[in-house]
Amino acid sequence: MSDRVLLKVYYFGQILLQTSEGIKFICENPLDVVIPFIISFEELKGVICEKIDSERARKISCILYRYPIQMFGGFIQFQTKYVTDEASMQEMFSMYIENRAQIAFIELYVEFEQSEADRNIVREDYNSDSEEEFESNYEFVGPDGDEDQGDGNTAPDVTEVANALANEVPFEEPSFMRVLDLEAMHAPEFPEYMTAEVPMVADGEFVVGMEFSSREAVIKAIKDYTIRRSVDYRVYESEPLTFYAKCTQYGSGCDWLIRVSMISRKYCWVIRRYNGSHTCTRATISQDHSKLDSITIAEVIKPLVEADPSLKVKSVIAEVQSKFNYTVSYRKAWLAKQRAVEKIFGGWEASFEALPIWFQAMCHKEPSAVVHFETMPAYQGDEVVRDIQVLHRVFWSYYPCIRAFRHCKPIVQVDGTHLYGKYKGCLLVAVSQDGNNNIVPIAFAIVEGETSDAWHFFLSNLRQHVVTRDGVGLISDRHESINAAVERSNGAWSPPRAFHMFCIRHIESNFLRKFKAPYLQKLVVNIGYSRTVREYEVRYQRLRERGEAYTNWLNRIPREQYVLAFDGGYRWGHMTTNLVECINSVLKGARNLPVTALVKATFYRLNELFTRKRLEAEARINAGHVFSDVVTSKLRANQIASGNIQVSCFDRQNEVFEVREMPSGLEFAVDLRGLRCDCGEFQVDRIPCRHVFACCANQRLDWKLYVHDVYKMEQIRRVYRARFRPLDNPTTWPAYHL
Predict the structure, then answer these.
(1) What's the pLDDT at 116?
(2) Distance between CA 463 and CA 606 in Å, rounded?
(3) Where in this protein does the record put region Disordered (predicted)?
(4) Which of 187, 358, 365, 355 is nearest to 723 (CA)?
(5) Which domain holds residue 25?
C-alpha cells in the first residue's frame, strides 16, 4: 500500500450544501498536493501555504475535509469534519484508507486568517462616523446572563448550517427585491446554482467517450434526452461509480442502452457504452412523463422562482407545458416549486436551525443590533425533548434602523402579513418616514399569527429598543389584537407617551362591511381628513342626515383616533397605513421563503436602501439644497399663494395675526409662537402654510425658522448615516452552543 496520498485543496472559494452529492467544495483553481501519511499537522499547513503562494494565504485559520457516507440504495453522500490537530488528521487518513475504493484523493477546504491591513480597512470604514450622542445600549447576551464576547471559531456541530448561510446564497440583494427605485444589479446573483452545461453532439444523440462533470449531469442529460423524444428508460445499475440504463422496451423491439462510469484519473464521468437511438414506438399519447419529475422541473423553474418566489403553481404548469409539451399534475408542480425554493434559498428545517446562528453573527458584527427570541419546548409524544427548542417568535431591528428613527418623523405604522412557505406564521413590520417622504423600515418580527400575545411581544420590544422617545404617533388598523396589546403596554403606547390612531381606509372598510352603503364611503373618509373643527362638523352633519345609525357607529371610535382636526398633530397628516403596506408588498416574494432567507432579504433590501438614500442626500447637500425635494415644492406653492392674502391685524408681542384671503374674504388666525393656523395645514405638516408666509412677509420674519428640522437635508442625511456591516465568512463568526 502506498505511503502517500493525493490532496485536492480548495481555497478562496465556497462550500455548497444540499447538492446531489451532499456537501461540495468549489474554487477557481484547486491545488493538487501529494503528502506522506507521516506528515505532522503543522507541516501540512506549511506545505499548503507554500504551494498556494499568495499574500492572502499567510496563515491558515481552519481546515475541513470531505468524507463519504454510504446511504440507502447504494448512494453516497459527503459530509465534512474539521482538521484541528494530529489526532483529527490521522482520523482523516483512516477514513480515506477505508473508502479508497470510492475516493481517489482527499478533498480539503482551507480558510486563511484576515491580515492586519484588511482589518484596518474595515475599522476605518466603520469608525469614521463621528456623530455625537449615540452609544450602544443593546448587546447580545447568552442564556446564562454573560455577555458574548465573540471569541473562538464556529462550533463544528453547526459548521454545515453556518457555511450554508454564506455560501448557498451570496450576500447580495435577490432579484425579486429590486423594487422602489432600486436599480437592478447586473452581475449574476447565484452563480453556483447555474445549471452545468450538458455536452451534446449536433444531432442530439449521445456518443461513446462523451464526458460529464458529475453524476448529476449524467442523469440530467439522460432525462432531458428521454423527455424530448417521448421515450422512457429503466435503471439497471446505479452505483457511486456507474450508471446503467435501458429502454423500457429493451428486448421487445428496442435495443437502446447506455452505460456511464466515473474515471478517477480524469475526474469526470464518461460514456463507455451506447447502442444508438431508440427504435421503439408508443402505443398511446401521455399527458405526462414518468421522467419529468419534480427534480427536473425544479431545475427548469429556478430562474423564475429566484425572480419571484411567489410564483403561482399554475404558472409552473404553464412553463413546463411550454418547455416540454407535457402537462404535469398540480401536486408535481407544487413539489417542484418547493424544491426550487430549497435549492436557491436553503431547506425549510435547516433554515430554522440556521436562524439563531445568523442572528448571533449579526449581533457579533454589530452589537447594537437587537434580537429577541421566544421559544417553546419540543415534545416527542408527551415527553419533552432535551436540548431542542422550537421557534415561537423572534423580534429584530438592525442598528442603522434604530439610529435612523431618531431623525425620522415621530410616527410609526405597524401591520402584519401572512407567510406562505412550508411553515405558516406572520411577519410583523414597523416603519417610519423621513423628511423626503421615503419609507424607513425600523423593526420586524416573525410570530405565530396576529394574536394579542404576538402583538404585545412586538410592540413591547419595539418600544423598548427602537421607539424610545415620547410624543410618538402609532398608526394601525383596528385589529382587536393590536388594541389589546396597546392596552397591556402599561402606558407605553398611550398618551402622553404615545398616541394610538387608526387607518381611515380600514375604518371605511369596516363601515362598508357593516352598512353595505358604498355611496357613503367617501363621506366617511372625508370626515377623517377634516383639518378643522368646522370641516368636521359640516361633514359629520351630512352623514347624520342620511341616518343616525351611521353616526352612532362612528361615535364608538374616539375622534382623536381618526380625525385630523382632533389628533393633536401626532399623525403628521398620515391617514392610512400605506407606508407599511408598501413594505409588505416589497417583501411579497420573501414571504414564500424559509425564515433565514426572509431575514436576509430584509438585510439586503435595507442595506441597498440606506446606501442609495445616503448618497442622494449627500449629493443634494453638496448642490447647496437646504430642504428636501418634497417640502421645497410645497413651500414654493404656499409662498406664491400668500400673495393674495392680507394681514388685517396682529399682536406682535404674542406673535398672533389675523389674515384675510382675497377675493373670498375668508379670515384665519395665525399663531406663530404656537405653530398653529386656523386652516390646519401648519400644525399638520409642520411647514409654513400660505397664511404663515403672508405674516412673515408682512413683518419681515424669516419663514425658514418655521420649517421643522425633519425636512432639512442635514437631518435626512443623518437618517441613513449608519451603515450595515457585512457578516463576512462564517469562519469569522463566534461559536454557537445552543
Answers:
(1) 52
(2) 21
(3) 127-154
(4) 365
(5) 4-112
